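Morning F.,

Quick status update on the modeling queue. The single chain you submitted on Monday has been processed. Sequence for confirmation:
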Amino acid sequence: MDTASSGEPVVYGYCTWHCGYSADIRVINVDEQGSGPGGVQSACLPCREKYDLIPYSERP
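Structure tokens below.
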């Protein structure tokens, strides 16, 4: 498994912001719905930096 310089695993997935697959994907928003499927918006590191996005897991 690949690891980032911080020692954390690198996650590959779809970046909602640039509409493509990339490494170092983090969940930004979780859309919950009472009935039916919810959704998740994820972003890669360049998009997180460009749009000042804060990962869901780092929010208070």
